[in-house]
Amino acid sequence: MVSDVIHTNELHKVDPVFGQLSFDNHEQVVFCNDKDTGLKAIIGIHNTVLGPALGGTRMWQYNNEWEALNDVLRLSRGMTFKSAITGLNLGGGKAVIIGDAKTQKTPALMKKFGEFVHSLSGRYITAEDIGMETADMDLVRDVTPYVTGISESRGGAGNPSPITAYGVFMGMKAAAKYKFGTDVLEDKTIYVQGIGHVGEALVEHLTNEGAHVIIADINEERLQTVSKTYGAEIYRGSDIYSENMDIYAPCALGATVNDASISKLKAKVISGAANNQLADEKRHGAMLREKGIAYAPDFLINAGGIINVYAELEGYGKTEIMRKTENIYNTTLEIFTHSEVNNSTTHNSALNIALDRIETRKKEANK
Ligand SMILES: NC(=O)c1ccc[n+]([C@@H]2O[C@H](COP(=O)([O-])OP(=O)(O)OC[C@H]3O[C@@H](n4cnc5c(N)ncnc54)[C@H](O)[C@@H]3O)[C@@H](O)[C@H]2O)c1
Q1: H or E segment and range at residue 125
Q2: Average pLDDT taken over every residue of the chain
Q3: CB atoms < 10 A from the CB of 362, how many?
Q4: 134-141 and 107-119 helices, crossing angle to 10°
Q5: Strand pairing partners for 42?
Q6: Quick check: helix, strand or coil at residue 62?
Q7: Which of 55, 53, 81, 83 is nearest to 324 (CA)?
Q8: Which of ligand 1's atoms lies nearest the C-alpha of 164?
Q9: How far is the CA of 255 from the centre of ligand 1 (A)?
Q10: What confidence tens digit (pLDDT) does each residue in 320-337 have?
Q11: Atom 2 of ligand 1 has which residue's CA nearest to it?
């Protein structure tokens, strides 16, 4: 039947879902709508070969639905590779809720969202992302078991940021070992851009090891607190990328590694927590390689958070969480070797190793 809601002439020329640029053979995309609570959400399940698709829910005021769809497709794909490279038996998924988390998030909306998650019978497991708190996950937990990141009192694994920071620290040490021949960071000059939940915990590891840490943030109060607590120097310049440094640690926003910054960067290593650091994965990955800058892939070294929530599902404790997170050191070294042997960027090497793991599992399942 031809819909009378929208005339076929008015349809966009680009196919809305399967034809999206960010579409990458996602298994399932679920649009969730509830008039009473105002919920408008999209759940993206990219790949479930290694296990249920786990990934957080982001609540954001997107400019339009295309942006929301693009985000959920891109983020869910990223989760597939993050879990695969980390050796977790999880697939990749993510959800977005369209709206302002400060004014439009209500308990009823969160519970309704939980009902949609539940309707997928565990193919998708949710967690926190931007705009979500532990309390929101607790509300989702009231209606479905397919949620992680809940309160510790309800069996949750607690704040993932210190674990994420520890993984980034491990990845940074491995990158230093590759680039400088030693993983000791003492006396290395390290710029940490963004000293929020993860950045601060990273600064603690680095200053404990005797590194020369310089911190940058747009939040003056945080700069003062972190500087006082750990004895880190505050950056007062206007162009961080031009500064002399051994290591650049982006821990704020994505896409800071781009044409403009790479042309100025004097750092020999890039290793930080931010997601999607390379503005263009292929192009900027190649530019870094050409310049001899050792880039520790973000989705590998910031996987401590997902290791932490995976523990909730598997029921293992802090010791195993730390062991798995520490292993980021070995995997990062493996990636550098793989990239050298295969003449590829570290980003591509990490992607290829992740893809191999998925393909192997697929073959085993089809035997
Ligand atoms: N929290 C986790 O466990 C986790 C896991 C994986 C990835 N990440 C990623 O790591 C990054 C940091 O996460 P977080 O939880 O610490 O976030 P956060 O919001 O606590 O901290 C971000 C910090 O960056 C600062 N900032 C924002 N714009 C800036 C700019 N232009 N220049 C300098 N500083 C700026 C903010 O003021 C804030 O202090 C994010 O990109 C996040 O997606 C976090």
Answers
A1: strand 124-125
A2: 94
A3: 12
A4: 60
A5: 31, 96
A6: coil
A7: 83
A8: 3
A9: 13
A10: 999 999 999 999 999 999
A11: 161
Residue nearest to atom 10 of ligand 1 (CA): 274
| 273 Cα nearest atom in ligand 1 | 10
User: What is the residue with the minimal CA distance to atom 38 of ligand 1?
Assistant: 196
> Tokens 């993984």 correspond to what residue?
167
Phi, psi torsion values for 224, nearest 5 degrees: -65, -45
Q: What is the largest CA-CA distance in the chain?
A: 70
Dihedral, CA of residue 318, residue 321, residue 323 and residue 324, to nearest 10: 180
**Hey, which residues does 53 pair with through a beta bridge?**
91, 124
Could you tell me if the CB of 48 is within 6 A of ligand 1? no
Please give the model's pTM, rounded to 2 decimal places.
0.92
Q: Which residues contact 183 (CB under 8 A, 6 or more apart)?
A: 173, 174, 176, 177, 329
Nearest alpha carbon, ligand 1 atom 20: 196
Q: How far apart are CA 268 and CA 293, in angstroms?
A: 5
What is the Cα–Cα distance from 223 to 225, expressed in whole angstroms? 6
3 CA from centroid of ligand 1 (Å): 44
Task: Report the atom number in ligand 1 closest to the C-alpha of 159.
Answer: 3
